[in-house]
Design a protein that fits this description.
Blueprint: E1 21-25, H1 42-57, E2 67-70, H2 74-80
Antiparallel strand pairs: 1-2
C-alpha cells in the first residue's frame, strides 16, 4: 500500500556519521518520510501529495521538489516529531518572492 510506504531507516538513524542533511520528502514517495497510514497527519500528507502530482510528473521539476533536514536541527526535529508522523503540528513559514532575475526570484 503506497499510503504506508516510508523509508526503512528509523528516526534514530537520522544524521548519523558525516551526513549534514537528511532527505525528508521528495516526489519519490518510497524515499519520503510520510506519516503512518493510521496517523491523523496522513490526511495532510494526502493533500500535499495531490497538490504536487502534476509537478512531480514533470521530469524537469521533480528533482527540485525535495525537503531536507539540516542535521544541526536534528535535536529539535526529534523533539517535535514522532515515529508515527514526522509532520509538525504547527509551524511558522515565511516566503519571499522577488522580481524576475532578482536575488529572490
Amino acid at each position: 500500500d503506497e499510503s504506508s510506504s516510508r523509508p526503512s531507516e528509523p528516526r534514530s538513524q537520522l544524521c548519523v556519521g558525516e551526513r549534514t542533511f537528511e532527505l525528508l520528502w521528495t516526489c519519490n514517495r518510497k524515499r519520503s518520510r510520510v506519516p503512518l497510514g493510521s496517523h491523523p497527519h496522513q490526511e495532510a500528507q494526502e493533500v500535499l501529495d495531490r497538490s504536487m502530482e502534476q509537478l512531480c510528473a514533470d521530469p524537469s521539476l521533480d528533482g527540485q521538489l525535495s525537503v531536507f533536514l539540516d542535521c544541526e536541527f536534528l535535536e529539535n526535529y526529534l523533539r517535535w516529531t514522532s515515529d508515527g508522523s514526522e509532520w509538525l503540528e504547527e509551524a511558522y513559514v515565511t516566503y519571499v518572492g522577488g522580481s524576475k532575475d532578482s536575488k529572490y526570484e
